[in-house]
Amino acid sequence: MSLSLITAGSILICPDLRLRQPPSYLTISSSLSSFIVPSSNHRKITLPVKVTARGDMETAAETISGGVPNNTMKLLFVEMGVGYDQHGQDVTSAAMKACKNAISSNSIPAFRRGSIPGVSFGEMKLQIKLGVPRSLHHQLDLDKIKSIFPYGEIVNVEVVDGGLICSSGVLVEEMGDKNEDCYIVNVAVYVGY
């Protein structure tokens, strides 16, 4: 059995899959959804698949240069998190939750114990990159977001297009909702010295 996938005008042919006993059903998964197709009479399955391509490396490098992370510190760790504000439509709250999520399951004793020769606890630096829906950038309170970090010098905060606005499925006026919107923010926290 051969599987062909049509991808944005191109054809990607997967290697032959040879089965001694054909299954009664074949499950095909893509980034969009899964399909269960009766396979007894099918030798070839063609499905449209959405493919998202990343830009070339030069474009990616241009996006990062001057932003976060940058060369003002020696990078040791990258902590990632996600935060939601389901009620009240407060993007700052979602960003604060994302930052808490990024740092709350990590411990970095190297700075306290002198594990990095010549580097003291006071030299810890942080760079923060927030993925926030573009229409909400202006609503962010960066001072509140920075208050989440208990130590380390915050040398840079970058806000880029990202995150998500979706429906929470319910409007609860008692919780400050103006609509059903749920705000989702992603963060990468770069830790170094």
Automatic annotation (TrEMBL):
Q: Which UniProt keywords apply?
A: GTP-binding, Nucleotide-binding
Provide any one GO MF term from the record: GTP binding
Q: Where is the signal peptide?
A: none
Which residues span the membrane? none
The family database entries (InterPro entries) matched by this protein are listed as:
CHP02058, Tubulin/FtsZ-like_C
Q: Does the keyword Transmembrane apply?
A: no
Q: What is this protein called?
A: 50S ribosomal protein L34
- Organism of origin: Brassica oleracea var. oleracea
Organism lineage: Eukaryota, Viridiplantae, Streptophyta, Embryophyta, Tracheophyta
